[in-house]
Amino acid sequence: MRWIIAGGGSGGHLYPGVVIACRLRKMIPSAEILFVGHGRKLSEGILKKEGFKFKEIRVSKIKGQSMPGKLKTVGGIPSACMQARSIIDSYDPQVVLGVGGYSAGPVVLTAALMNKRSYIQEQNVFPGLTNRILSYVVKKIFISYEASADFFPKDKLIYTGNPVREQIINLPDRRDALLSFGLDTDKFTVLVFGGSQGAHKINKTVTDALAELSGQNEKLQILHQTGEHDFKEVKAAYEKYNIKSYVSAFIYNMPSAYACADVLICRAGATSLAEITVCGKPALLIPYPYAANNHQLKNAEVLANKGAAQIMLDNRLSAPAVSRFILDIMQQPGKLEYMSRHSRKLGKPHAGKKIVEYILGELDYVKQN
């Protein structure tokens, strides 16, 4: 049993592929899985940790390029497809699954033309260009949001949700998690993060809000992932206002961080929202304003419309607004419980399992074993 998982380039595309691969490996320990894509540093770092192999293809994105850049990219597609064909010929996979990102395009397209079982998985409400194109040549499309149905052939859709790691599905004990970060077990806890690289505007706004929040230092504590650039400034701000905190450039143990949190303040990337809803956490979502097709806002609106989150647009983000949100949610446990309940209703903890089981169900391998 051999699978190719194609795409990546960003963690939002790559992580769901890793979750699917881990689920397949758990169900069929002898399965061989090869990741193919662009962005060796990110991909190899994540995949090496999980024990998966990776092959890189040379391909560039079209979106966001100047006209000469777009023409150069289009001209390079045949070469990328030839690279993909060479990999597919030598590896001979039973399944090729695209998880988004422009590097998935040549691999999945070539696999479909070679009559390999080809599928795609879409993380966002508004699909990326690559998946919109590939939707016409693959067998099935696994979507994370029902609203994505408007962008794809209806007879190919399977609504699964977005895969999340098993560690997120089974969070550690909250008390143990708080103690692991050196936090108090009886305080209202806010988790702040802006993605693996941090988000400067979120960091600055939250620290500016600490002056107003300092009166709550007997009741409030904050767990804050800053990214490398803002770490020293953010840490100094918490010390200045004497607010209990755990500040880190990068939080490696996100399951424990989620377990600690009463509420989150974060961007609206697809993986983050999938994890938030599986954990049943309320959130203040600040969509990244430069995301392709404004997809983070569209993702966030799904949660907000169901009562699981509030949205604050990046251009309206301010310290008074953030402090009001935190103070309001602290003082209204009923509202917090309402948002948490509706967040959990949106969670799809078994998305990865459903995707693997569906594909395996179409293969002779399963029928013979």
In angstroms, what is the radius of gyration? 21 Å
The overall average pLDDT, rounded, is 91
| Fraction of helical residues | 40-55%
Structural class: alpha/beta
End-to-end C-alpha gap: 12 Å
Q: Give the domain tally.
A: 2
What name goes with the CATH superfamily of the largest domain?
A: Glycogen Phosphorylase B
Summarize the helix and strand pattern as letters.
EHEHEHHEHEHEEHHEHEHEHEHEHEHHHH
How does this structure look, described?
It is a single chain. This protein is α/β, with parallel strands linked by helices and 369 residues long. The protein folds into 2 domains: 2-164 and 349-368, Glycogen Phosphorylase B (Rossmann fold, 3-Layer(aba) Sandwich); 168-346, Glycogen Phosphorylase B (Rossmann fold), CATH 3.40.50.2000. 47% of the residues lie in helices and 16% in strands. The chain has helices spanning 11-27, 40-50, 67-75, 77-91, 104-113, 129-134, 166-169, 174-180, 200-213, 231-241, 254-260, 270-279, 295-305, 319-330, 333-346, 351-361, 364-368; strands at 2-6, 32-37, 53-56, 95-98, 117-122, 140-143, 157-159, 188-193, 220-225, 244-248, 263-266, 283-285, 309-311. The protein is elongated and about 65 Å long. The chain starts with a strand and ends with a helix. The relative contact order is 0.12. The mean pLDDT is 91.
